[in-house]
Amino acid sequence: MLNGSYSSSLVLISLCVAILASYTALDLTGRIATAKGRAAYLWMVGGALALGTGIWSMHFIGMLAFSLPIELGYDLSLTALSLVISVLSSGFALWLVSQPSLPGRVLALGALIMGAGISSMHYTGMAAMQMQPGIDYDPLLFAASLLIAVGASVAALWIAFRLRRNTPYVRQIRGGAAVVMGIAIVGMHYTGMAAANFADGSFCGALDGGLSGSGLDYLVLITTLAVLAVALLTSVLDARLEARTAELAQSLTLANQELTQLALHDTLTGLPNRSLLTDRIEQAIAKVAEQGGCFALMFIDLDGFKPVNDAFGHHTGDQLLKEVAMRLRGHLHSQDTLARIGGDEFVLLVELDEPEDAVGVAAKQVNLVSRPFRVAEQSLQISASVGIVLYPGNGADQMELLRNADAAMYHAKSAGKNAYSFFDVSMNSNARLQLQLLQDLRMALEQRQLRLFYQPKFDAVGRQPIGAEALLRWEHPQHGMLLPDRFIQLAEKTGLIIPIGEWVLDEACRQMRSWMDQGYENWRVAVNLSAIQFCHAGLVDSVASALQRHRLPANSLTLEITETTAMHDADASLMVLQRLSDMGVDLSIDDFGTGYSSLMYLKRLPANELKIDRGFVRDLEQDSDDAAIVSAIVALGQALGLRIVAEGVETDRQQDFLTRLGCDSLQGYLLGQPLPAERFMADIERLAVGQA
Ligand code: C2E
Ligand code: CA
Ligand code: CA
């Protein structure tokens, strides 16, 4: 028998190659597991080439490490076949461990196939030596080598499958596993080698035309190392890239979440905003359709928020809104939605067991807001008006529900605030009309649809005209001539009253100029101011410039402000009134007797005239109380040195009575209706002719 010997350095190298190949294989399974689609197949093919070459070259270097007293060579085609077998087995192994699961039976079968592959690679490689006579294998060792091949495959497949996901320390664990796998593969190889007995006088049939000679080991080693290195490097770089991509994707998800939060929530209070609310209402509607039940939608509008904002500043206003949101939110169930959809507008969506339960919820909300808030060292008192719709019943979709809830809220507000009100069909048409009217009103000024009518004022005793009150009319293209009660509130609510008011002031002054030019130098024209105009910073300047533009003495203009307006925010009003009075403008307190005035305050007002509200005049004859009030007002006015005007005079008896009580001037349908300037003048002239 020929005695073989091993080159220890090549044995060591073959072990290193086996470990390196194992490590590469484990790393590649990780790649295949996380890659998708075509990339996974590319990795599998590349991996099979790298791993197959690795295992094969370990085996081939192991063969080169072995030497016999005779010269050895390797048949090219058989050697190539062993390489192909190695690559195919590796490909099979990689495919197997990249499957979603690896049950025991599959693992066993896979290991059998893979073990068979490795063994056939090995023994094909041995056959490439084409020994004559043939190699005599020791059956026991041969069997042992097959067993080791299958055992190593079980271990390799199982480890590779377990380690394919990226977990902490996966590289270290893979390193350890690679050493175990490498030793197993090498063990199989050398067991197989040990099984081989070469008979004395054997010679190598592959010497002619086969692979042989020194340097073969280095060639194989270097090629293998290059292949493995490229595979490993690509894998590591790709893993890095993947990790970076994953990181980027993660931060993108976070950013997206933040954006959604921003897009769906109100930044001040953190409550859901209108778009999220819309969504929730639609969900609630769908739920009712599926499972029955009902829900209520409550439109909550704060009363008196604007004055707080104006008086204490936006910062305090914002704080107050936050407090309101917190208090309301605090008393709700988690499935209910409280949204903020506008400055001081909130909407509450509540699921109900019974429609009647809405009353309790609404009453609670109203009550919660009416308790004082402590904000920035101030105790602030506001209230809420709540409009309620029920679903099913008060609307088909979220838009209609919200619109109707809004209409109901306006109803609650106009009915005195600090209350709730259930929706009723009559409110709906109202709300819709209002909306249309508002859109029309925005165009009214530029389309010159506004007119001033003039109602004469007469001296009570002499019965001479002493001027007129300018009353606003809107010639609406569809609705005809509209009276102020149809649109002034709307104009005030939207701020349109400012430009409209300026137009009124200018137009009335222009008319007054014309009357003066016609010889009525002692007349005064009276213009009504709303509270909003009165609070507007530009008022004094507007008045001054209107007077200047039409070359009017300030004294020919009377400004009428209601008692309530004058008393509200007394100190600020006082300042504005004082400046107007200093200019010489005539000031009249309108609707006197309807508000709540303090005598002390009245005394300080620089007013020139008191206008007794027509409500007292109307009931003068029936109601002795009203007669008493009117005479008290007259006495009070006289004591304060104010002119007294009575408006709404409709009958001769009223006229006589008011004159007797001591009113200075009178105004009313009896004496003259509000009319456009031309007809007004015609009436006055007719009167003058009649008297003459
Ligand atoms: P007001 O200042 O109290 O104006 C008097 C209102 O009483 C006018 O109604 C007038 O037509 C009506 N009236 C006059 N005589 C009689 C009468 O004998 N009997 C009855 N029952 N009513 C009489 P109008 O024109 O509808 O104005 C209503 C309110 O609209 C005014 O009340 C005033 O507060 C406001 N307003 C009118 N024009 C303007 C304006 O240019 N600017 C502002 N801010 N408000 C205006
Ligand atoms: Ca008036
Ligand atoms: Ca009045």
UniProtKB/TrEMBL annotation:
Superkingdom assignment: Bacteria
| Residue ranges constituting the GGDEF domain according to the UniProt record | 293-425
CDD domains, per the entry: EAL (cd01948), GGDEF (cd01949)
TM stretches of this protein: 6-28, 40-66, 78-97, 106-128, 140-161, 173-198, 218-237
SUPFAM superfamilies attached here? EAL domain-like, Nucleotide cyclase
Instruction: Tell me yes or no: is Transmembrane among this UniProt entry's keywords.
Output: yes
What positions does the domain EAL occupy? 434-688
The record, for Pfam families, names: EAL, GGDEF, MHYT
Identify the residues that the record assigns to the MHYT domain, covering every copy: 6-199
Q: Provide the alphabetized UniProt keywords.
A: Membrane, Transmembrane, Transmembrane helix
Q: Does the keyword DNA repair apply?
A: no
Query: What is the name attached to this protein's record?
Result: EAL domain-containing protein
Organism of provenance: Pseudomonas qingdaonensis
